[in-house]
Write a structure and sequence with these properties.
alpha/beta, four-stranded parallel sheet, 15% strand, globular
């Protein structure tokens, strides 16, 4: 089984971190292929960058030359999953939805801890669109920019753990979701600080993708995710 794990930003070191977390969660015999888009922002922290990332991720997957069995979109609250589902028959799993869906098996309510406050509405909208918002106690921002997770990991971990503790104590969350692909590998400190289960979206997405492939399930093409209709694309250099 081969699973493509696509970072939404162009920071190679973050792709490496995401890939390592995916490999840790993967079963024997599953090949994880981490991919970095050829264009886009070095971090995605708003709607403009997110829409650009959606195009970049779709083009990265569309141009991948080898067969694959599933795709993971490794960006939290980002656009583009629906477009990938139109382009592909294989399962497409978004880490935002994977983390929230997994959290609902572990407790009555969950909270998401993300990076900057401006990312909160994007995540809230994604959860609402996916039908996963009813049991979301809160989406909280740690105040740490995405790239700061690598530049100052100790401060980032502490800020995330502190905000997670507030979600448990003030919002009554029973499960914490790490709300950024770059937070992969930070679960242990948050568990120590909060005492509740902590879901890493990349790891959750890998296990869900594997399950869908093993069940022989594919993306429905009857209506919403039917393939794009053939059209002329004016001045679009990557058009088929």
């Amino acid at each position: 089984m081969r699973i493509l794990v696509v970072n939404v930003n162009t920071t190679d070191s973050m792709t490496k971190t995401i890939g390592e977390q995916a490999m840790t969660a993967a079963s024997p015999g599953t090949e994880i292929v981490p991919l970095t888009p050829a264009f886009g922002a070095d971090s995605v922290e708003g709607n403009y960058e997110s829409h650009l990332a959606a195009i970049a991720v779709m083009e990265t997957v569309r141009s991948y030359p080898e067969p694959f069995d599933a795709v993971i979109q490794a960006g939290y609250g980002e656009h583009g999953r629906e477009g990938l589902q139109e382009l592909l028959d294989v399962p497409v799993v978004d880490i935002t939805e994977a983390a929230a869906a997994t959290a609902q098996f572990l407790g009555r309510s969950y909270s998401v801890i993300t990076t900057l406050d401006r990312a909160v509405p994007l995540i809230e909208d994604r959860l609402l669109l996916a039908g996963l918002s009813a049991r979301c106690a809160s989406v909280r921002a740690s105040g740490m920019p995405v790239l700061e997770l690598e530049r100052d990991p100790a401060a980032a971990v502490e800020a995330i753990a502190e905000e997670a503790a507030r979600a448990v104590e003030q919002d009554r969350a029973e499960v914490i979701c790490l709300g950024c692909g770059g937070m992969s590998g930070l679960s242990e400190r948050v568990v120590e600080r909060t005492g509740v289960p902590v879901v890493d979206g990349v790891a959750a997405a890998v296990t869900i993708a594997e399950s869908l492939v093993r069940l022989g399930l594919t993306t429905s093409k009857v209506r919403t995710y039917a393939p794009p209709r053939p059209k002329q694309f004016r001045a679009w250099p990557m058009a088929v």
